[in-house]
Design goal:
- The structure is a single chain.
- The chain has about 100 residues and is of the alpha+beta class.
- The protein has a single domain (about 10-100), classed as Orthogonal Bundle (Arc Repressor Mutant, subunit A), CATH 1.10.10.
- The chain is about 55% helix and about 15% strand.
- It has 4 helices and 3 strands; from the N terminus they run H-E-H-H-E-E-H.
Length: about 100
């Protein structure tokens, strides 16, 4: 019988679009414009905003709203908690693969 490692990260990151966004933000290590993430994930404004609300609610991301000249800009970056959750998720996946490869 396979014994799988327990889940020790926030499951809100498991949605495919959120996971892709978190992976992208983890590699950037800086704020990224809303429009850039929207284009990368091929989402509508409302759909992306919904995903961002969930991630912000769980303190996975930080959102900064500012003006560039007179134009409002929303920028997003992975929080320390987000990095921790993503790192734990990566280790969990590797452990899961290791367990399945042993059989």
């Amino acid at each position: 019988m396979k014994v799988y490692p327990p889940i020790t990260f926030n499951k809100v990151i498991l949605h495919p679009k959120r996971l892709r966004m978190i992976s992208f933000l983890a590699n950037e290590h800086k704020y990224v414009a809303f429009q850039d993430i929207k284009q990368l994930l091929e989402l509508t404004d409302g759909n992306l905003a919904s995903h961002l609300r969930q991630l912000q609610k769980h303190k996975i991301i930080q959102i900064e709203k500012r003006f560039v000249g007179k134009i409002p800009q929303t920028r997003i970056k992975l929080s320390d908690n987000g990095f921790c959750n993503f790192d734990t998720f990566k280790h969990w996946i590797l452990e899961l693969l290791e367990v399945s490869n042993r059989e």
